[in-house]
Amino acid sequence: MKLSSFAYFAGFGIKTILSGEKKPILGTVILTDKCNLSCKHCSVNNITAAIHPYQQIRGEMRMLYDMGVRILFFCGGETFLWRDGSKSLRNLVIEAKRMGFLIVNVVTNGTYPLDLPEADLILLSLDGDRERHNAIRGDTYDIIMENIRHASSDNICLYMAINQINKGAIRAVCLTARDTKNVRAVSFNFHTPYPDTRELALSRQDKAACCRTIEQMMKDGAPVLNLKSAFPYLIDNSFPTPCHQCVVVENGKVSTCGRCIEVEGLCSQCGYFFVAEYTLLFRGNVRIILDMLRTYLRYI
Questions:
Q1: The pLDDT of residue 2 is above 80
Q2: Which residues contact 168 (CB under 8 A, 6 or more apart)?
Q3: What b/e readout covers 47-80, taking b as 16+ CB neighbours within 10 angstroms?
Q4: What is the C-alpha to C-alpha distance for residues 83 and 91, in angstroms, rounded to an integer?
Q5: 8-45 pLDDT, tens digit each
Q6: S-S: 35 plus which of 75, 77, 238, 256, CB 3.0-4.6 Å?
Q7: Helix%, strand%, coil% for the chain, nearest 5
Q8: What's the CA gap between 203 and 287, in Å, rounded?
């Protein structure tokens, strides 16, 4: 992370903690909900299969920038499916950088070639070892690993949503992150149980066991991007929601925190590690602040 970017984020954090303001710093633009996969844990793919046009996406980026957002994510559906004429995902990342966003990340399922060195991070979904990943996402593990090996940059962060199918594969994914070329880190979430995927939800005991495994892998040198100090809050779902410092825009509609905010009762079952980390950070939790400084300066 550039020193100037660090200074900006530090200033934002201090001001937010002291003033209690609810201005956003992290924003996500949904490029499309079209996806080439039908993953068992996903509730938001191919609802419309619309690919939003470049000028609309650019306008949404400008809107987020004007709101104060400086960390931008491009999400789907599958982001690498996005095109508008000659414009590709790379054009969006370059335009976001030109516009002034300090960190620009892309989320993908990894089944398309990973030639995007302009992104700060490519968050790539890997949901276990080969057997358990393929049980969730279809027969895609081998092609994803091949794409990682041939990626044009080392800006990949593995991204695992832990559920009842793959909860035993945390160690395998950590080792993959540690030992695979072009992978910088791994980030975890717990499954957030939309109404149609409740059977995949983890119990409190499951979450505690998962956190123990992640913590052990941290001790063993795995490059984990999550904050250990947030684990107790994630296990008990005792962190405040929603996260007012995060916003999502999809087809012109802005949602605080995420698209799931409109699903009744879902906030109380939130499994997103970043929501716990950010809400606790901006409430002035000292352990979270120190943990985030150590972790983010190392991997971002």
A1: no
A2: 132
A3: eeeebbebeebbebbebbbeeebbbbbbbbbbbb
A4: 10
A5: 999 999 999 999 999 999 999 999 999 999 999 988 78
A6: 77
A7: 45, 15, 35
A8: 25
Instruction: Record the tokens describing residue 16, joined without a space.
Output: 């937010």
The residue whose two tokens read 């003033």 is: 19
Terminal Cα distance for the chain, rounded: 6
On the 0-12 / 13-18 / 19+ scale of CB atoms within 10 A, 197 is middle
- Residue 284 near residue 240 (C-beta atoms within 8 A): no
| Amino acid in the structure at residue 131 | E
In whole angstroms, what separates CA 51 from the centre of its chain?
21
Q: Identify the domain containing residue 71 by its residue range.
A: 3-299
Q: Flag whether the pTM goes above 0.85.
A: yes
Enter the tokens of residue 256: 């605080």
Beta bridge partners of 51: 32
On the 0-12 / 13-18 / 19+ scale of CB atoms within 10 A, 214 is buried
Cα torsion at 72, 198, 174, 120 (round to 10°)?
Answer: -10
State pLDDT tens for residues 182-225. 999 999 999 999 989 999 999 999 999 999 999 999 999 999 99
Q: Which residues contact 220 (CB under 8 A, 6 or more apart)?
A: 174
Contact 207, 167 (CB under 8 A): no
Number of domains into which the chain is organized: 1
> 264: domain CATH number?
3.80.30.10
Residues in the chain: 300
